[in-house]
Amino acid sequence: MAIEPAYVVFSLGTQPMIAEAQRFLREWGVEPLGRYGRWEYSSMGQVMRDALNWASDLRSSMRMSRGVVELGNIERGQ
Ligand SMILES: Cc1cc2nc3c(=O)[nH]c(=O)nc-3n(C[C@H](O)[C@H](O)[C@H](O)COP(=O)(O)OP(=O)(O)OC[C@H]3O[C@@H](n4cnc5c(N)ncnc54)[C@H](O)[C@@H]3O)c2cc1C
Q: DSSP letters of 18-76?
């Protein structure tokens, strides 16, 4: 299957479309990453950094929510 364009291309009106697509995906718990997910002209280093930052943020938020659950259990005497 041929996909046109096989490269990130920027034109007038691209930014609002990207913002809307990303908003929709995040609403469904999907984090767009990488050159095509974020539709940006990024290098290999940038996409790896963004993925590591996202994983680190996710790990922190999971720790925080686990902390809230654990605190809730203590308050309930469990
Ligand atoms: C010609 C060219 C030269 C470049 N040179 C450099 C360079 O010298 N240095 C540098 O830092 N960066 C360079 N880049 C940029 C670099 O390739 C990208 O920034 C980087 O690969 C983006 O990583 P990614 O994971 O976002 O996407 P990708 O590396 O494109 O990975 C996406 C993967 O998803 C797969 N995929 C897509 N659709 C589906 C699907 N429906 N189901 C399953 N799998 C799917 C693809 O096959 C691919 O393996 C170059 C890019 C190009 C095009």
A: HHHHHHHHHHTT----HHHHTT----HHHHHHHHHHHHHHHHHHHHHHHHHHHHHHHHT
* Degrees to nearest 5, angle at CA 26 with 19 and 4: 55
Residue of the CA atom closest to atom 51 of ligand 1: 43
Span from the CA of 48 to the centroid of ligand 1 (angstroms): 11
Name the closest-CA residue to atom 19, ligand 1. 43
What 3-state class would DSSP assign to 10?
coil
What confidence tens digit (pLDDT) does each residue in 30-72 have? 999 999 999 999 999 999 999 999 999 999 988 888 777 676 6
Q: Which of 36, 31, 58 is nearest to 47 (CA)?
A: 36
